[in-house]
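FIELD: query
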Amino acid sequence: METIAAFGDSVLKGVIYENEHYRVADTSFQKICEDSFGITVENKARFGSTITRGEKIFEKNLELIRECSGQYVILEFGGNDCDFNWKEISEDPDRKHLPMSTIDNFTSTYMEIINAIQDMGKIPVLLSLPPIDSSRYFRHISRGLSGENILKWMRNDKQYITNWHERYNIEIFKMAINCQVPVIDITSIFLEKKNYSRYLCEDGIHPNEEGHKLIARAIEEHVKRKNISF
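FIELD: result
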């Protein structure tokens, strides 16, 4: 059975949010794909991981990557990188606030990981980001904080959250093109739905178990279309 290493955040980890608690989904897209392709995924994704934290985890697992029989290494980052410290924004919406990872830091660090994987003779495979629900996410991040101040910082446009998140998603596709590495589009299969929010958790950002089935389907279709074998 082929073994593949994977690095990313809570989406890749399979975390879902239900009844105000986080847990790993019983049927995450990783588990579905393992069964579908007959592979084992050494999943080193971590909840809350940004690209900077991901690089540190990656560097600690170089030997694991070399020992994996598969030629592919899965990467999924961006959802936390584009996030902000909402408590600080709530307390002072008038000053400048930076995301967890600036675009420049996100792309430069991501490409360092991509290049390191290629230098090891492996093939990095990037996953795009699932879309988010701005209204749900706004309710989630503003709990116990000043939603009025956070909305003021957003110039009274909750859609800003979705737009900013998509800004990082676009960078993932651009990096794949520039580095000439595969990228699997797990975004479009959500956007094709008339109400993709029903595939997201209460927090508006994590795919629910039905959302994980969508992601698995997108990956399976990509593998079939590209005639990839394991």
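FIELD: remark
The mean pLDDT is 97.
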